[in-house]
Amino acid sequence: MQTSSFNLLIITALLFFSTGCGTSSNRSTETAGVEYTTQPDSVFQAVVVVSGNGWGYRITQNKSVIINQPTIPAINGNQAFKSEAEARSVAMLVVEKLNRGHMPPSVTVKELDSLGITY
Known about the structure:
Layout: H1 2-18, E1 34-36, E2 44-51, E3 54-61, E4 64-69, H2 84-99, H3 109-114
Antiparallel strand pairs: 1-2, 2-3, 3-4
């Protein structure tokens, strides 16, 4: 019985640390995020991730990463999004552009402003 409890403790600890729980809020590397999609039949998905001291996103197509955006696009410098919601709104815009066939799905400063992105 004692070995069973010990094994359960080890498995719980491994799961805890492998999912990113218990890590410092000062993360310097990207971690797994939350997946969003604009249309149920879309082959593109937006995944919001922690990036540096903020948020970024990845766009996947059929589960393969096609865009990795750890910083706010269209602005000078390498600044992460200030919130998950801001990263998600830009990622969803990019997915919508991809679904309409826009390639590359560039984002403009005007679009960032219209979405209320702070930079």
